[in-house]
Amino acid sequence: MGISAFISLILIGAIGAWSEAMITLALVLTSLLFCLIIGLPLRDMACT
């Protein structure tokens, strides 16, 4: 798994899509954070 991730990163850099990939990664991580912030309290309220 680590080797395939490394090869994927090398390939992204080789085709010149590094900045687009980092923007996508930032968007995904930000949306994950927002989903956790909203979802965890909702889960707790639903369980009570």
From TrEMBL:
Keyword Transmembrane: yes
Keywords assigned: Membrane, Transmembrane, Transmembrane helix
Entry's transmembrane regions: 26-42
Protein name: Glycine betaine transporter membrane protein
Organism: Proteus mirabilis
Name of the encoding gene: proW_2
